[in-house]
């Protein structure tokens, strides 16, 4: 099993997923060896190389390089060891060394057939002459010298004695260590290996090689000194040459590591000028090596602990800020909790990383992580998949600690939130105290009332435990709704059905009408504008949807019924007396008013403030709705056809009508002093004229007109809430 694992590891490491044939079945992983074409390049990087030319990214050539790395490690250890401790003899090690040299000789031959990367065009060069010229002019000489079997030559020319010169030439095999340097450079860029441990392995390897080489060299000096007892090892072990090979090697390593670490116990020290000179050079080398190791380790440790240091600095700065500004303990706790949670979830969120990715990758990640959550949200039941695919990538995941405010009461709507994990509570402030009016758990959505209705949030939202929340910007959400009109109607219907089921969020003791979400259309609303635009295209269908929605939002929950497929309760009202017609007139939706009138809406039912829909229309700047109401009344009068809803409306018309009377006089200044009068409408024109004469102190009143200067001669056409204007005989003669 371990063999299979090792084989799989070597296969993954050697194969860099670069295929010169452009196979589509290669792994999607990307590593540093991939060719990056220049901007706007038209050259296909998958072009076939010439015959007998090897790609440097070929899997087989990568495996060959890995095999040579193992031989390099062997050469790095055996070369100093043989130089100091072993004489040249025709034994097993002699055979092994020559086999290793043979493999590197084969690599020299292969290098003449390996394409190389041109530094300017960044393309593979597969010309035989250029490859050969480049190799001969660079590393060929060093590779050749490091491969020559100097051990065999020493046996041939020195009569098996092994001269010092041939031993020094054998040390040229250390040139092969450049391959190890290239290996670590690749590993540091390879995402499959931890960068920290790769750097640590490199530093440890450099240290061990330095200790091994220095120990071998120092022993070689002592071994060749004329007086063995005046050496660093002979002073302790006079007959050290009779010691076993293992004891001598361990003693040399002991001296080397003690000197490298500047411990210096004093038991082994230089005894002659040669050893002193080597000790000086070795300690100077140790200064640079120690600085290199300490610098790299410090950099790694600082990088490793930088997040913790930044976190502690943020906590300290936040605490000082809270104390300096004397923040309440609750706000200070929220501030510190937010910083702590941000530190814990930094590796999970990575919003900066997400923002730097292409849109397709961001969409794929968001679809995998958030699509099921958004799809199951109540507000988006029944919408199209295309709508959700546009919506999901725009959401940002955020984490909130317990007892942190997500939305403040009466805060302007800026975002919609979907709760992924955790829970929140809805609270309102009454007399300075928080009163919980509801809760939400995983999968619920909140903040949509303020965003879709264009009103401040009627309640505050605070987490009760650690919560992961998806946040969607208001402008982005509304733009996507605008692009998908059918899904917009579904979303609005879902919102109205939710509000109908909840009965709004009307809270006892809440006196500000703007905080009542059941009146969300009593103000500027994006959805109203969209519905008004759609009315011109498909009036009947849109009116039906609008009335159904209006019934859900304006009717009290106890009085509203499901209006799909049935007649809407167009005259139903809330506790404040708001009807669908009141809302439509106030918003200026003339098509909606026409539809409500056709359904039998009563224009004379006053609200809690005494305003009837007709009076409200008369006060509007745009007279179109008021003219529509008058025309509708005139059409009903001749044929006397009144539907069931109208009969019901007449049943609730009050017996006494209230009208507002005004006096129009020639003297404008005099007319300004005559304030309008609110009176109960009498039963005849004559009585009305008498009352007006008494109220305004003018006995010359001769006629009555409405706001559109139409003369009134029948008391029955006057409706509750009308504004009547009286003309004196002088004004009438002038007219």
Automatic annotation (TrEMBL):
InterPro entries, sorted: Ankyrin_rpt, Ankyrin_rpt-contain_sf, cNMP-bd_dom, cNMP-bd_dom_sf, Ion_trans_dom, K_chnl_volt-dep_EAG/ELK/ERG, KAT/AKT, KHA_dom
Superkingdom of source: Eukaryota
Residue ranges of the TM segments: 66-86, 98-117, 249-265, 277-302
Location of the KHA domain: 658-735
Family statement: Belongs to the potassium channel family. Plant (TC 1.A.1.4) subfamily.
Alphabetical list of PANTHER family matching this protein: POTASSIUM CHANNEL AKT1, POTASSIUM CHANNEL KAT2
Protein function: Potassium channel.
Protein name: Potassium channel
Source organism of this protein record: Salvia splendens (Scarlet sage)
């Amino acid at each position: 099993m371990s063999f299979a694992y090792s084989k799989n590891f070597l296969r993954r490491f050697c194969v860099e997923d670069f295929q010169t044939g452009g196979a589509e079945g290669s792994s999607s992983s990307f590593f540093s060896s991939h060719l990056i074409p220049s901007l706007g390049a038209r050259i296909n990087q998958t072009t076939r190389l010439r015959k007998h030319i090897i790609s440097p990214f070929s899997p087989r050539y990568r495996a060959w390089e890995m095999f040579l790395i193992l031989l390099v490690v062997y050469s790095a250890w055996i070369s100093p060891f043989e130089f100091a401790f072993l004489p040249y003899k025709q034994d097993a090690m002699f055979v092994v060394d020559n086999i290793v040299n043979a493999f590197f000789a084969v690599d020299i031959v292969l290098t003449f057939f390996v394409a190389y990367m041109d530094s300017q065009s960044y393309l593979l060069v597969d010309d035989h002459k250029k490859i050969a010229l480049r190799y001969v002019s660079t590393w060929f000489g060093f590779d050749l010298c490091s491969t020559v079997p100097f051990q065999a030559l020493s046996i041939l020319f020195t009569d098996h004695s092994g001269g010092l010169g041939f031993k020094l030439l054998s040390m040229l095999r250390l040139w092969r260590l450049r391959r190890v340097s290239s290996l670590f450079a690749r590993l540091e860029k390879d995402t499959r290996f931890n960068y920290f441990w790769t750097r640590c392995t490199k530093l440890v390897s450099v240290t061990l090689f330095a200790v091994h080489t220095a120990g071998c060299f120092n022993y070689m000096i002592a071994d060749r000194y004329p007086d063995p007892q005046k050496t660093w090892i002979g002073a302790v072990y006079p007959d050290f040459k009779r010691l076993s090979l293992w004891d001598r090697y361990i003693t040399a390593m002991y001296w080397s590591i003690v000197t490298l670490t500047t411990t210096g116990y004093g038991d082994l020290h230089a005894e002659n000028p040669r050893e002193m000179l080597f000790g000086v050079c070795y300690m100077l080398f140790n200064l640079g090596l120690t600085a290199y190791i300490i610098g790299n380790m410090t950099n790694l440790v600082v990088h490793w602990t930088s997040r913790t240091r930044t976190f502690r600095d943020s906590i300290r700065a936040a605490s000082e800020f809270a104390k300096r500004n004397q923040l309440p303990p609750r706000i200070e706790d929220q501030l510190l909790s937010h910083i702590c949670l941000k530190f814990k979830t930094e590796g999970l969120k990575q919003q900066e990383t997400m923002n730097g990715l292409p849109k397709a990758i961001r969409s794929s990640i968001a679809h995998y992580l958030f699509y099921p959550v958004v799809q199951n949200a109540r507000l988006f039941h029944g919408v199209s998949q295309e709508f959700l695919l546009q919506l999901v990538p725009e959401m940002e995941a955020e984490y909130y600690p317990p007892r942190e405010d997500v939305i403040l009461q009466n805060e302007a709507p800026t975002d919609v939130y979907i709760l992924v994990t955790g829970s929140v509570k809805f609270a309102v402030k009454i007399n300075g105290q928080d009163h919980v009016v509801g809760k939400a758990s995983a999968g619920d959505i909140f903040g949509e009332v303020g965003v879709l209705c264009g009103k401040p949030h009627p309640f505050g939202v605070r987490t009760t435990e650690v919560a992961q929340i998806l946040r969607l910007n208001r402008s982005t959400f509304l733009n996507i709704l605008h692009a998908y009109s059918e899904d917009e109607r579904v979303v609005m219907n879902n919102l109205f059905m939710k509000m109908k089921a909840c009965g709004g969020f009307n809270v006892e003791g809440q006196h500000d009408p703007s905080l009542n979400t059941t009146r969300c259309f009593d103000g500027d609303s994006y959805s109203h504008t969209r519905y008004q635009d759609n009315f011109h295209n498909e009036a009947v269908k849109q009116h039906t949807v609008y009335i159904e929605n209006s019934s859900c939002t304006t009717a009290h929950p106890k009085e509203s019924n499901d209006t799909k497929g049935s007649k809407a309760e167009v005259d139903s009202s809330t506790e404040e007396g708001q009807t669908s017609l009141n809302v439509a007139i106030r918003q200026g939706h003339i098509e909606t008013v026409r539809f409500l009138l056709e359904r039998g809406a009563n224009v004379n039912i006053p609200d809690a403030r005494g305003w009837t829909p007709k009076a409200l229309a008369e006060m509007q700047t745009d007279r179109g709705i008021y003219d529509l109401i008058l025309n509708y009344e005139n059409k009903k009068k001749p044929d006397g056809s009144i539907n069931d809803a109208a009969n019901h409306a007449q049943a609730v018309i009050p017996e006494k009508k209230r009208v507002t009377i005004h006096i129009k006089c020639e003297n404008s200044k005099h007319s300004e002093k005559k304030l309008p009068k609110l009176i109960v409408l009498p039963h005849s024109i004559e009585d009305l004229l008498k009352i007006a004469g008494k109220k305004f102190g003018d006995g010359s009143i001769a006629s009555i007109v409405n706001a559109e200067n139409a003369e009134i001669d029948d008391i029955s056409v006057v409706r509750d809430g009308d504004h009547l204007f009286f003309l004196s005989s002088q004004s009438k003669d002038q007219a």
